[in-house]
Amino acid sequence: MATEEPPGASTGAPNAGSYDGLTFVSHMIAGSVAGTIEHTAMHPVDTIKTRMQALHPPGHSGSMIARSSLREVLRTVVQKDGVAGLYRGVGAVAAGAGPAHALHFAIYEWAKESLGGHREGLHPVETAAAGCAATVVNDALMTPVDSVKQRCQVCVCVCVYWRGSG
Predict the structure, then answer these.
(1) At what angle do helices 90-114 and 24-55 cross, to 10 degrees?
(2) 6 and 18 Cβ atoms separated by less than 8 Å
(3) Contact (CB, 8 A) for 126 and 112
(4) 82 phi/psi in degrees, rounded to 5
(5) What is the pLDDT along the chain (166 residues), one digit of tens a residue?
(6) Are 60 and 66 in contact (CB under 8 A)?
(7) Domain 22-164 is of which CATH architecture?
(8) Could you give the C-alpha distances from 127 to 13, 97, 109, 115, 134, in angstroms and in order?
């Protein structure tokens, strides 16, 4: 019983640049859409986490703010800023996540192919190296975006806290 290879898998056929039925551009589009949806959907959770981290500096465990629960921080954000407060900074993330994840998916597949990770059998070293390369590019693009996002998420929160503490 013979197994079938994907079109162009072992030849120089025109489909040689595709994997799992997707071309390089298709991987970029899939990555872009997936990354943007994931970052947008998780943004409210990230906002709460970021505010809790900003208001819980190390060594200040005795303050009332340091004892705030997730529920208390959520309630405070919604009371002061409305539901829109949970999405402060989402524009920066949506603008940056698309290109960053598009490149992540595309570079991962390109690097994996270049390193021989698509050959028959398991290739953990090649796959890991491809993942590392893709993550370096993704992080290089997302780190500045995260900085803008975090400043948007905590600006009002931290400013109100510091003004209130005199």
Answers:
(1) 130
(2) yes
(3) yes
(4) 75, 180
(5) 444 444 444 433 334 455 667 788 888 899 999 999 999 999 999 999 998 888 766 666 555 555 678 888 899 899 998 999 999 999 999 999 999 999 999 899 899 989 988 888 888 999 999 999 999 999 999 999 999 999 898 875 444 444 554 4
(6) yes
(7) Alpha/alpha barrel (1.50)
(8) 24, 23, 9, 8, 11
Indicate the pTM of the whole model. Answer: 0.70
In the chain, where are the structural domains located?
22-164
SS (H, E, C) the chain: CCCCCCCCCCCCCHHHHCECCECHHHHHHHHHHHHHHHHHHHHHHHHHHHHHHHHCCCCCCCCCHHHCCHHHHHHHHHHHHCHHHHHCCHHHHHHHHHHHHHHHHHHHHHHHHHCCCCCCCCCHHHHHHHHHHHHHHHHHHHHHHHHHHHHHHHHHHHHHHHHHCC
* Residue 11 confidence (pLDDT): 39
Give Cα separations from 156 to 23, 51, 95, 150, 152 (angstroms).
44, 10, 22, 11, 8
